[in-house]
Amino acid sequence: MGIEFISPTNIVFKKGVLNNIHDIVSAYGSRFLIVNIQKDNENPEGLEKLRRALLRNGSGCIVYDELIGQPDTEQIDSAVYFAKKSHSDCIIAYGGMDSINTAKAISLLVNNPQFSADLISNAPDHLSPAMSLITVPYEPAFGEELSGFFTLLHATEGTRHCFQSSNVVPRECIVDSELFREFNQDDAGKYSSALFTIILEKYFSPQSNIICDTLLLKSIKIIHDNMKPFFQNPGNIDFLEQMLLGSIFGGLAMMNYPSGLTWAASQVLSIKTKISFHHSLPLLLPYVLDFFITENAEKMMNLSSIFSIEYSEKNKMECAVKSIDYIKALFSALNIPEKLSEFYITNQDTNDLAKDIADFKQIQYSPKRLFKDEIEALILSAI
Fold it and tell me: Among 179, 170, 177, 166, which Cα is nearest to 90's?
C-alpha cells in the first residue's frame, strides 16, 4: 500500500478565538492585508471585528475591498500592485470561496514577477514561495480554505482556469462562529447541497486514498446529517458550524487535488450562463453519478449506511441506483433546481460549454477518461 498525505495548515476551530487572533497570526507578520471581495462583503460587522482585533494588539492592518464580482486577472494584478506598495507581510482572506481564491493568487504573485495571466498561458517551472496566507471563512468554502489551488478568470478571454501549487496552501485556517455571516433558507439549501456535492465528488476520485476516504466519509456524514436541519433553521449557528466542520474535513482530504467533472462543469457554467456555481453543482451531480455509475458502484455501497439504504454485496448496481435516487430526493427537498433549462440553457449551448469543460485539466480526477462528446451528451441530459 502506498499513501501520500500532506497537511501543512494549522486549523483553529473555536468560538471566540478572534479575541486571541494576534497570538496566532503574529508568527506570520505584523502588517496584514485583509482581502474581502465586494460580493463577499455580506458581514461587514465581522470584517470590522477582525480589523479591530488586529489593530487592538498593535498590528498594522489594511482592508482591500476594491475587488468586484468574481475578480479577473486584471483586478488581481491591481490587488498585487497594492499589496506590494502597502508593504504588507501577510495576507488574510476573509469571506467565502472567491475571496479565498483571490487571496491565494495575490499571496503567490506578490513575491513573483509574473502577472496573473502568465499563470494561465505560460506558468513558470519555478516560483518563489508565496507570502504567508491565513484564511478566515465566514461560510463553507468547499475545502478551498485549506487547499493548494485556486481558479483564475481570464480578463479578456472570459475563461476560468485552475492553478495548483503547494506554494499557496494557507499557513493557518481560523474558524470562529462570531465572524459568520447570516444565512437565509435559500442560502442554506444551495450552500449545503453544493458542499455535499464537492465532497462526494472527491470521494469518488481515483486519486483518493484510505486517509482521504476516511476524512471524506466523515465529512459526508456530518454534512448529510445537518443539511435538512440547517435548511429548516438557517439562523442556527450550530448547524452552520457543522457545515464549516464538514468543509474542513473535506479540505484536509483535498490538499493535493481539486475536484473533477462536476466542479469543472460548474466553473464553466457559472461564467458562461445564468446559473450560479452553487446551484450548478447539486443540479449536475445526479447526472454525473449516473454517467459514472459503473465505476462508482463499489464506493456507493460505503454510503448506504449514511443514506439508510439496504444493500446486498451481490447487487452493487442496485445500491448505486438507490443512492442516486436518494440524493435527487434530498436535493429536491432543499429546493435545488433539477434542469439546466430552468436557467435558459438550451441544446444549442452544449457544444461550446463542453469544449470549455474539456479544457479543464481537473476532469482527469474523474473516475474514467472523458472526451468532449461525452461531456456534451451529459450536459444535454441535464437540459
Answer: 170
